[in-house]
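Notes to self after the Tuesday call (sharing in case useful).
The group wants a holo model before anyone commits to mutagenesis around the pocket. I volunteered. Ligand is flavin mononucleotide. Logging inputs and output together so the record is complete.
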Amino acid sequence: MITIIATTNRPNSNTLKVAKYYQKQLKEKGVDANLFSLEHLPADVLNTDMYGKRSEAFQEIQNMINSTGKFLFIMPEYNGSYPGVLKVLIDACNFPDSFYDKKAALVGISSGKYGNIRGVDHFTGVCHYIHLNILPLRLHIPNIKTELDEAGNLHQPDTVKFTNEQIEKFIKF
Ligand SMILES: Cc1cc2nc3c(=O)[nH]c(=O)nc-3n(C[C@H](O)[C@H](O)[C@H](O)COP(=O)(O)O)c2cc1C
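Result:
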């Protein structure tokens, strides 16, 4: 199973719009992907699901992670890195079996001009540690407000071209 993770819990995030765009593009290529937004982590996850504790709500998320072989992480830039809530997800999941020897692709987005280059690099380091193999083509989409149209689609020709290339490589990965 493929799971796209929209890695912020911010409501109405651009991250979720980009995640839905990737899901649609995969579908057009005949590939079904599950989509999980970190808005749907248990509200009290810090108290209920870390360091050996497990709520029923998080167990469902853990089951979904267990059944996933390939992840696509859409990561907004928050204070020069990826969101802390993504690290909470990784730290709350069972180690090492949740991500070990699985595969992932990474996409950084930002309202500023760097497209979360640093956050994608920081998270790549985490992925190496947990033995999650990363697709070499990592994408960065800066100025996200100018990239999405009213329907939530990426529309700038270069961005469409490079996201399409990444999706095709991700399918073969
Ligand atoms: C807590 C927080 C920190 C942010 N830090 C940065 C930043 O360091 N660089 C940047 O370009 N944009 C930053 N932004 C703006 C996001 O890149 C912007 O909101 C963009 O739409 C992607 O995030 P979203 O998925 O929350 O919409 C920040 C936004 C938030 C909520």
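Two things stood out.
The radius of gyration is 15 Å.
Residues 8, 10, 13-15, 76-80, 109-112, 144 surround flavin mononucleotide (CB under 6 Å).
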